[in-house]
Write a structure and sequence with these properties.
This protein is mainly α. The protein has 3 helices and no strands. It has one domain. Helix content is 72%, strand content 0%. Helix 1 crosses helix 2, helix 1 packs parallel to helix 3 and helix 2 runs antiparallel to helix 3. It is globular and about 25 Å long.
Length: 61
């Protein structure tokens, strides 16, 4: 079983956040995570996972 199940809210949030970062690179990571949490009704655990993933992308830039 994968950590991110296909069609899950977290998966949709990851896709949305990645696109939002491309369109609005000035937007802060925490603001993206907060907005994704509201849009996709993420649990605190899912929001933390998204934050961790996005912070990892910051290190790759």
């Amino acid at each position: 079983m994968s950590v991110i199940e296909e069609g899950s809210a977290l998966k949709r949030a990851i896709i949305w956040a990645s696109e939002a970062r491309t369109e609005h690179p000035e937007k802060k990571t925490l603001a993206l995570v907060d907005e994704a949490g509201m849009r996709f009704n993420l649990s605190p655990k899912e929001s933390d996972a998204l934050l961790h993933l996005l912070k990892g992308e910051d290190a790759d830039r």
